[in-house]
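hi! just following up on the protien thing from before. the input was this:
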Amino acid sequence: MSDKLDAILAAAHDHATKVIAPNVDGWNAARTWPRDASDTAGAAGLTGLYAPEEWGGQGLPLSEGIQVYEQLGLGDGAYAFALSMHNICTYAGCGYGTQAFKDRWARDLTSGRKLANFALTEPQSGSDPMQMYTRATINGDGTWTISGSKAWVSLAGEADIYFTVVKTSDAPDHKDMAMIAIPADAPGISFGPIYDTPSYNFLPMSEMYLDQVVVSEDNIILPVGQGFQGALMAIDIARVSIASGCCGLMQAALDTALSYSKNRRMFGGKTLDLDGIQWMLGEVATDLEVSRLLYCKAAEALGTSQGPLMAAHAKRFVPDAALKAANTCTQVLGGSGLLHPYGLDRLSRLAQMLRIVDGTTEISRVVIGRALQKRAAGLPDMAVPRGFGETADSDATRKAG
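and the predicted 3d structure came back as:
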């Protein structure tokens, strides 16, 4: 571990334990994004993790910066998720934005003075981004006029700019997609009612409506033809980031169960002395270690041919393990695990949320399944049993059908 990464992880841990954890219940009660907290995160260097140092960022590779969300996840998984999306947008803007865009936005984004978020999903399509109806018309003066709607937009009404994937024609497929950054104060942008979510009310999510929004060509992040691939890369980074944050959630749940069970007395001893409790928590500890290894391996693969598959493995396994861990730790506390002050109900709900956002675990299974089909195609054929009267010609007919 480099000295720089060590310092950033220490800053993230302090932020989680001193800023997030003591205040998250109050944030949820207030139902507002804690801008003072994200300002503090920016001052600590947590809002420009992958951006170049010349623009005020930390210049960390993805494989290192993604580890920050494990530390933030100790405090709250939804907060870690929001900062991960901001960092992905900042990475895109500083890496692929126009010079004019970087001059205008880069330092505000890396410092956290301005917040960014990503808008891809639409109300009708969910996990199928090919069904996109948001349209951008390229005008004669180079500006773009955009109309459409997006769903599940995080930091809705709170972010200062939204990195939005659009289509530029009615043609099918994705070859006409682009990504453009839309400032929150652009005329014609509005937001629907904030979604009523169970355990992360401080993170505003809603639909975003675009009614003839005109944006400068300076704000083009990925030009026509590159928007879809850029969106897929952003999703892969987000999936691995979610896995990282889930590890922090698992550690928080495990520590809560350990802190409680080491002092809870019953049946003539302490709960943690019981073999059954040790086995339950031991399984959580093993899943946590496996999850850490998996997300770190997936982070190293980002940007390579194995990146999408490894991101799918991490997104499929780790949030499921986090939900299991939260539920197991709740069980260890017994009735007390249901009480609000222990926070395990919040962790269970957060784990469920993280199983869904940026591609459900079922979508990850589809990605993995397709990779297995591709691998199978390259393996030698093996003899398989034939039914009574079935011939080689029957096999050929069946394959053709």
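The beta strands are 116-119, 135-138, 144-154, 161-167, 177-183, 189-191, 205-215, 220-222, 265-266, 269-270.
DSSP finds 13 helices and ten strands in the chain.
cheers
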